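Notebook B, p. 112. Complex prediction, attempt 2.
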Amino acid sequence: MLKRYSILKNQFIGFCLMSFLMSLPTIVSASSVELGEQLVKDQCSTCHKFKGQSESRFKIKGPDLMWGGSKFKRPWLIDWLRGKEPNLYQEGYRWDVEQKPQPHVILSEEGANAVADYFEKHLMGFRVKKDAIDLSHFTELQAGFGRQIFIDHSCTGCHQIMDDGQKMGGPQSTTFFNSGKRLKKDWILRFNAMPPDFVPHSGEFVADVSELGLHYVTGFLATEGDDSFKFYEPWTSQHFKNADTKRGRTIYKEYCSQCHGAKGDGDGPAASGLEPKPAIHAKMAMDQFPLDYLYNVVYYGGKAVGKSPYMPYWGLTIGEQGVADVIAFMQDEFKGDSGASSGATAVAQKASGKCPEKRTTKKVSFKYSNKKNPLKPNASNLKAGETLYQKSAKPMNCQLCHGKNGNGKGPGGAGINPAPRNFTCSSTIKDVSDGQMFGIIKEGSPGTAMPAFKNLKDKQVWQMIHYIRQFSQ
Ligand code: HEC
Ligand code: HEC
Ligand code: HEC
Ligand code: HEC
């Protein structure tokens, strides 16, 4: 009886102090922490553990919280405790007992803040080192690598993520739809390094991922759904401001000419055995290629941008400055088909491509071939298709190869064999079905320069197909 009374009294004082302190939000009062501790004891410890050893989920009622302060981002934690966040376990935390997710205890704003204060003061997991992972140089492409590792290493077997607006994966464990809003980066890193340290005998999984892979997959989870995270853009860095074409020329000779040829004619000693052939840089208007694309293809290699793995990833060999230098060299040296003037490129772009065109493109798999365009070719879809084709598709837009007018003579078109499809040639294009186009855009055309655009949403691909068809009408 007495004990109960003192708890209530403590809570009351805590609340009064809290409202007073609301105007000084940076100061965490001792009594707010105490209130948090009390709330945790009274309302949470029947289901969660806050000290001691972690245990199998089959022996507990809710996730262990001994490391809650280093695990959760504060705004998410507060929203969760105020009942504003959806459940993380779609089939229930204890799916062996009951398959419905249970509604969670809800606290007042003051209570939630007090619990968060308590977490930050007393539940900083001893294993988690602050700033163990540095994401200040984390790029969007690297997040994409992390996502791919997440899929390749069966993580989606038990955790769901969003894929083109659809839930993907098995809902056994926590969902990661917005993990970047919920989890702190250093905690994710430490968890991923050895999951059984946190959740032993709970159906968890230890993956065989390299240290670099761990960095990527952790960065992916730490940024997923967090709109406030600013990805690093290496092509805006000091290395690019200091880029030197002379140094770049030397790198090109030492590393690139073995495939792309001494003069960029695509005739280096390795070229004869490669399909697709190394791009003929001498015929490409490199100065018209966006820096982010050039950076990604040179630093991370062909595969990273949906192209052939024959194009190696150079970042680890020549470093950040080397990549900047060789790009500066290429942009200075290679300005398009007939030499230096970009006027010549403009003329080439106006001329029409070959028609009818020799077309040796492989048929796409059954999964794609029967698809029909579900969208109407109305103004808004055509406009969206145009923007993607001309400007915004990643890792590179389509006009760079297929040309502004769809004739296959973009700034990169002439350096490529087989040539980019000429969309203006109706006698060739009319026999290419919607499903065929869809499959080639998603998967690329193996053995050619046509990249796989895996990151585009289905809807975006269909919008572009409507736009492309216009060129031959
Ligand atoms: C009746 C049991 C129960 C009580 C009482 C309870 N929780 Fe929970 N808690 C759960 C379960 C079950 C989950 C997992 C829910 C889900 O996401 O589906 C959970 C999830 C959480 C999470 C997120 C865990 C994670 O790993 O993401 C936090 C934080 C949390 N609870 C804090 C608290 C606090 C603080 C209290 C007391 C104010 C409390 N809980 C009271 C059962 C409980
Ligand atoms: C066989 C099922 C399974 C697979 C596969 C799996 N996990 Fe888990 N994961 C779990 C379980 C179980 C937990 C503990 C939480 C719980 O009890 O559901 C967990 C928890 C996590 C957590 C902590 C999440 C949180 O909110 O507490 C992270 C991070 C995580 N896994 C990452 C990964 C990664 C990365 C991969 C792929 C390399 C992966 N998991 C593969 C079952 C799995
Ligand atoms: C790096 C150059 C390059 C870029 C960028 C490029 N393409 Fe291609 N594309 C090609 C080449 C080369 C071919 C011819 C492939 C072949 O012969 O199999 C091609 C063929 C195609 C085809 C014809 C498929 C068939 O079965 O005939 C379509 C459709 C297509 N591309 C759409 C696109 C779209 C949409 C984009 C932008 C999102 C794009 N391409 C970006 C080089 C490129
Ligand atoms: C082992 C052979 C090889 C070496 C060495 C090589 N490349 Fe490549 N590179 C290729 C191939 C093959 C392609 C065409 C890939 C495709 O179209 O799928 C390519 C494509 C490219 C592209 C993209 C052009 C386009 O079509 O969009 C650039 C840029 C590039 N390489 C730059 C470099 C630079 C810079 C170096 C040296 C640091 C280099 N390459 C070294 C084989 C090589």
